[in-house]
Each structure stands twice: as C-alpha cells, then as structure tokens.
Amino acid sequence: MKSLHPNNLHNSDYNFTVLKEKYPKIGKFVLEKFGKETIEFSDPVAVKEFNKALLLAYYNIKYWEFPDTNLCPPVPGRVDYIHYLADLLGNEKNVKVLDIGTGASCIYPLLGNAVYNWNFIGTDIDADSLKIAQKNIDNNNLGNSIELRFQKDETNILKGLLQPNDSFTAMMCNPPFYKSEEEARGANRRKSRNLGNNAVRNFAGNSNELWYVGGEKAFLHTYLYESSLYPKASKWFTSLVSKKENIKSLENSSKKLGVTEFKVISMNQGNKVTRIACWRF
Q1: How would you classify the pairing of strands 119-124 and 96-100?
Q2: CA 257, CA 175: separation in Å to the nearest integer?
Q3: For residues 170 and 138, what is the distance between their CA atoms, to the nearest angstrom?
Q4: Whether the Cβ atoms of residue 61 and residue 23 lie closer than 8 Å to each other
C-alpha cells in the first residue's frame, strides 16, 4: 500500500519473515501468490491474526482480543488517520484525544499511544464493547494513558458525555457508514463477491459500528452541531468521511455554526480515497 502517509510503517510490501518471527501463529495462514507471501484477505480469521501480528511486530501491542462479531479494523489504514492527525496538530505537547466510537478493539487509542505517546478517552454507546476494550487496555498496561466513557444516549455524541473541565487537543471519529442493517448487509455481500467469497457475512460488525439512523451524513451533522455547543472542549474536531458528497454538506453547515476553520485531508489507501474533515471554532 504505497499511497499511505509517508510515516506509515506499512508503505512497502509486508515482511512476513518478521511477522512469522514475532507472531508465529500467523504462519499457518501465509500462502504464496505471484511469487510473494501473503494471506487470504477474504478469510476473516486470517485477517484478524494478520492484524494481531502487525500490532505485535510494529507497535508492541501484545494483547488484542474481541469477539468475531465486532469489526476487525485494518491496522495500516487506522494508523494512517493517526499520522495525519499528528500533522494537523503540529508541535502540540501533552496531546489528549477523544476517540468517538472506540469500539471493542480500541484501535485508535492503542495505536495513537504506541506511535506518539498520546493520551486518550475512548467513548462508545455499547457497554459490552467498552468492557472488552478495557481488557485490551489493561492487558497492555495502558490504564494510565487510556480512559473509557459510556455514552448512555445513543442519539447523542458529545452531549451527556463531556465534563465541564474536559480539554482535548483533538477529537477523532470513524462514523457508521450505513443507514440501516439492510444497507450494511448489502454492502457486505458485494464486498464478499468482489473478494471471490460467497459468505453472506464475511465482514463482521455489530449495529452501532456499521449503521446509524440517517447514515453517515446524519451522524456527521449531529457531531458538527454538538461540537458547536462545546466549541472550547477541543482545539480540533475531526472525523473520517467516506462519501465525498457529505463533505460539502458538512462545510456549508459549519459556516452557519460559527466554525472559523474547516479543512479536508485526503487519505489514499490503495484504490480507496477517504477524507478527514477537520474543523475548529
């Protein structure tokens, strides 16, 4: 994936010699295609073990467990957001980030702490996911660097969650893409077919990870509106945006809500372009 951020450790071909040495369990999933070692990326078990191997070999994250029903985030793409966020923050010291929707994998806090030694508060509307995320934190001895908070009202993002003395350097978010379970299932079926896999549900993910009433656009506008209620809570508010058309809508609304700076960072990951919307008051 040569189009990742210049600081991303996964810009060149994966070194399976290193991965097998650091994480021997990956060995049974490695196969050869076109003269190169790889894994079967349509096999969710292989993909999960592969990402565990990357986390251990390159980030010294020794424990990373969560149910197969939860999303398995691809490490190279997730750490890209971290690197671009670091560019945005520049020379900021003592960085503290709010990760909205941290999930059971707790991937952004784990990576952000490993790469830049940032402190995090991770939030989620799923209490079970937070319990699993806490195990990932505790088993990597990161209790002093990563804290979790439960959002009781799933219609809110920041309301009811932020405390009066909260002060963040940045907020980050990977929002749900789909409007409904049916839309998510349809996308998963298409993705499975593209990988030559006929499994109906090859790509895991529970409800709050995959869909939100109104889809990505509704989620982003709720986040933007609620950020305007707490303009001093963070120096930057950011979010991934998968659909290009949602950027213009978000920017137009931001002007009405008093945003003083709105910028878009493009992330190129293979054939996929994802954007990070960034705003501040």
Answers
A1: parallel
A2: 21
A3: 24
A4: no
* Both structure tokens of 255: 């002007």
For 265, the token pair is 């960072």
* Structural contact between residues 281 and 228, judged by C-beta atoms closer than 8 angstroms: yes
Query: Phi and psi (nearest 5°) for 235?
Result: -70, -35
146-150 β-sheet, strand order: 146-150, 119-124, 96-100, 168-173, 234-241, 272-280, 261-269
Tell if the pTM clears 0.85, that is, is over it.
yes
CA 7 – CA 44 distance, rounded (Å): 27
On whether the CB atoms of residues 169 and 89 are closer than 8 A, the answer is: yes
| N residues, the chain | 281
Q: Which residue has the tokens 């190169």?
A: 36
Instruction: Note the pLDDT tens digit of each residue in 192-219.
Output: 445 454 443 334 444 444 445 667 899 9
Q: pLDDT tens-digit profile of 226-281? A: 999 999 999 999 999 988 999 999 999 999 999 999 999 999 877 788 899 999 99
